[in-house]
Amino acid sequence: MKTILITGVAGFLGSHLAKDLVAEGNRVIGVDNLSTGKMSNIDTLLKNDNFVFIQADASSEKWLLLDSLSDVREIYHLASPASPKYYQSASLETISINTVGTMHMLELARRTGAKMLYTSTSEAYGDPDVHPQPEHYRGNVNTWGPRACYDESKRLGEVFCYEYFHKFQVDIRVARIFNTYSAGLRSDDGRVISNFVDQALTGKDLTVYGDGMQTRSFCYADDTIRGLKLMMEKEAASGEIINIGNPTEHTILELAEYIDQLTGGNCRITFHPLPIDDPKQRRPNIEKANNLLGWEPVIDLKEGLRRMIREYRQ
Length: 314
Prior knowledge:
13 strands; 37% helix; Rossmann fold; seven-stranded parallel sheet
């Protein structure tokens, strides 16, 4: 039985990952400050003897000397607001968790000899002028704007990972996660799929920003989690940055039309001004994930939306 630490355990991906790892027979220590995570996401885990919850901020050092952390063998550092709605309203906290919090997790990994996976983001590519985006693309980013607190702190988190890998030989893996969704995404999250599904099921207009021709690639959470677990498992991923996302591209307008059809076709689509620095295109090149991990997504958008809508209705 391995002891595995997950920061951001009460969040969308963290809770999903924790349930998988506990079900596989691992002991999981979950940390969350509950700023955007929800206790309801981990209710079933709290009844399991192989799960321990610590309410704490990964940016704080207070809990890092707990004896229970001495035998941690794997660290998944997922803690951070991921929706613009939340990271823009808590911009300084977002910067802190992705920089100071990341350094704390790297120090813990260095002390215990644990492997660590840092969840970075496709936002590291900014508004890309290379399409699709491979890991060696350096991005087209803006340090002076409302998204920078997230984009740039995630990028600096990657720099910390690079330094600890090269200076201290910490076994680090960096996942650049593209848009991920499933029923676990909270309905008030503010991201496009949860917005559209919530609006459609409550009889509201679907709010499209810009002309709807901007594109995204949407990966179902089960596929994303499988990719993260493979990154932790495979030695070929050590010291690597790897895109985890679905390479099939859709326009936002196309997404709105899919969701309207799947929920009954009664919604009106309205158009609103595009937010500052909103990327025009976003699509991962996943050749590296395929070659190093043998990974590719298997759940297409319509099937994923059917599952999500079915669970949201319930």
